[in-house]
Design goal:
heterodimer, A: 364 residues, mainly alpha, abc type-2 transporter like fold, 2 domains, four-stranded mixed beta sheet, 66% helix, 6% strand, elongated, B: 252 residues, alpha/beta, Rossmann fold, six-stranded mixed beta sheet, four-stranded antiparallel beta sheet, 9 helices, globular
């Protein structure tokens, strides 16, 4: 332990003195956030929703009124046939069909729960994703209100204020996720392959140092840098863009750390495999670039072509971004994002096995 | 006193190439022992096996009383190592570099005293990558001394140094020997071996072809009737260079 801490202290000192590394771990992410945040590059304006209310009862009217009260949505009432035509011409983002048996009441045993049918325009996936999230949230709150027998009208107020989706709110968790990935993979792979190529690792392995302690020191260094990076990004997000982390900082940081460890294992695997520094950028880009675009960093993950979505939806960064975003935007708890966390842990295990296979200190 | 390094029938092959073909020798405590040979003779492979960095295919070797094959980390604890073509962790000062290696041995050392002993006291707080070639070799020796090793392994310590820095390093190596440390070095500079080493082994294609004090090797050769084709010069170009530029070490 003492050995780990001493090595960690010196490695961290070296890392902090490395201007290039600091630039890439702090300045570039900040630039990304400020540019995308200020220019609102990914802004999607408002989401136009058509509602076909086939129930026309008190419950459905209540739902429609709440949706109409939400700023992000432009709600019109249309028949399904009309709305589908508009959808095909991409004049509409989505259509919600409220079935005739719609009711907001505690479900009775044996009775089917009424189902909303939602059509979305494939050409505008971000808008559809946001619209779906809002509707799901409204339904959740309404159901909750009913089962708790709290006054529905009070919940309605809360809902209207709760759903407050600006692009920057959507963006910040994505920026966190992508930077965790970049930092963990690049900082480990570049540094260790350089150490390997220049003979630093060989020299260290000529001492009786415990390899696990040395690796732990490297991991701790990156965790500290990653924590610093997350802190700076969040601070700027909170101060400059007034972003609210609905689910609280602690769950967010926990998920961020799990993500860091996951991508560190990939970084170590890459460092173990590569024999020269020239190989690192190519392979690292091959790993990170698809996730950069398809994992919901700047735009919804549904921007990925539908054909490859089954794959892109389980990419490590997609899972990380989903979890971060649900915590940050929707106020999810750790338990709520357990599926994503489980996925991240499976990836971590896979990365760990790969790293152990590929990373052999003895051969340096 | 028993030998401090004992090697018996050591073998190592890489694929089709037999790098080391069953060599045997020993090193006496306190001597400067030189392993000479052209590039590719198997010097570095031999040294790296003795340092516990490489596995041999056959034979046996003990260093400082420890079996290299059974307990490589026990050997590493007792020796100091200066590798060919190696480097230090980035962005650390000379002093922090020594501290880093002390941490690798889980030891706390007086870094400044150690740096002073290799004449780097003034450079303690300078980034290690800003040191000159000679200074870096001395820092390298300082890091190899953090654990007060019984044997110091130096793999081509003066390669790439200017004549002043080489002589300065020779003084340092003699100084270390004077403190009671055995020094095991490889070199392909024969003047270096002749001046520094108590005994030298000459390696050729994985075999040791001669092992004796340098003077004895030369006498043996002369006894076989060898004469230089050209009369020995009384001075060479290096002597001219040193006469004109002085023996003092240049530090940037």
């Amino acid at each position: 332990m003492r050995q780990t801490v001493r090595l960690f202290g010196l490695l961290l000192r070296g890392y902090v003195r490395d201007r290039t590394a600091l630039f890439f771990s702090l300045v570039v992410p900040l630039m990304l956030m400020v540019i995308f945040g200020y220019l609102n590059l990914g802004d999607f304006g408002r989401v136009s929703v058509a509602i076909d209310d086939q129930a026309k009862n008190q419950s459905s009217k209540q739902l429609v009124d709440i949706l109409k009260g939400i700023n992000t949505l432009v709600v019109t009432e249309q028949t399904t046939d009309d709305a589908l035509n508009h959808l095909k011409r991409t004049e509409l983002d989505m259509l919600v069909v409220i079935p005739s048996d719609f009711v907001i009441a505690p479900a009775r045993p044996g009775q089917a729960v009424p189902q909303l049918i939602v059509y979305g325009d494939d050409a505008r996936p971000q808008q559809v994703a946001v619209g779906r999230q809002i509707i799901a949230q409204v339904i959740d709150r309404l159901s909750f209100a009913v089962t708790q027998t709290a006054p529905v009208i009070a919940v309605k107020d809360e809902t209207v204020q709760g759903v407050r989706l600006r692009y920057v709110d959507f963006l910040v968790p994505g920026i966190l996720g992508v930077n965790i990935m970049q930092l963990a993979i690049f900082s480990v792979a570049f540094a260790l392959v350089a150490d390997k190529q220049r003979g630093v690792l060989r020299r260290i392995m000529a001492t009786p140092v415990r390899v696990t302690n040395l690796l732990a020191a490297h991991v701790m260094t990156r965790l500290v840098i990653a924590a610093g990076q997350v802190a700076v990004l969040l601070l700027v997000a909170l101060v400059l863009f007034n972003v609210t982390i609905v689910g609280g900082l602690i769950p967010l940081v926990v998920v961020a750390l799990i993500g860091t460890i996951l991508f560190l294992t990939i970084g170590f695997a890459l460092a173990g495999w590569a024999t020269s520094e020239n190989q690192v950028p190519a392979i690292a880009q091959l790993i990170t670039l698809p996730q950069f675009f398809f994992s919901g960093v700047f735009f919804s993950k549904n921007a990925a072509p539908e054909l490859i979505r089954p794959v892109t939806n389980i990419l490590p960064l997609t899972l990380l971004n989903d979890a971060l975003r649900e915590i940050s935007v929707q106020g999810a708890t750790i338990w709520d994002v357990r599926t994503q966390i489980l996925g991240l842990l499976i990836w971590t295990l896979a990365g760990f096995i790969l790293a152990v296979r590929l990373f052999r200190f003895e051969k340096f | 006193m028993p030998p401090i390094v004992q090697v018996n029938d050591l073998r190592k092959r890489y694929g089709d190439i037999e790098a080391v073909r069953g060599i045997s020798f020993f090193v006496e405590p306190g001597e400067v022992f030189g392993l000479l040979g052209p590039n590719g003779a198997g010097k570095t492979t031999t040294v790296e096996i003795l340092e516990g960095l490489r596995r041999a295919d056959g034979g046996s070797a003990t260093v400082a009383g420890v079996d290299v094959f059974r307990d490589p980390s026990g050997v590493k604890r007792r020796i100091g190592v200066q590798l060919q073509a190696s480097a230090f962790p980035d962005h650390l000062t000379a002093r922090e570099t020594v501290r880093f290696f002390a941490a690798c041995y889980d030891l706390v050392v007086d870094e400044l005293a150690l740096l002073r002993s290799v004449d780097l006291g003034e450079r303690a707080n300078q980034p290690q990558d800003k040191l000159s070639g000679g200074q870096r070799q001395r820092l390298s020796i300082a890091t190899a001394l953090v654990n007060q090793p019984q044997v110091l392994f130096l793999d081509e310590p003066t390669t790439g140094l200017d004549p002043q820095a080489r002589r300065n390093l020779w003084d340092l190596i003699r100084d270390i020997q004077g403190r009671g440390t055995t020094v095991f070095l490889t070199t392909h500079y024969l003047d270096e071996a002749e001046i520094l080493c108590d005994r030298v082994a000459i390696m050729e294609q994985g075999n040791i072809v001669a092992l004796n004090p340098p003077r004895k090797l030369i006498d043996d050769l002369l006894a076989r009737g060898f004469t230089k084709p050209v009369l020995q010069q009384k001075a060479n170009l290096e002597d001219v260079f040193l006469d004109l530029t002085g023996h003092e070490l240049r530090e940037p």
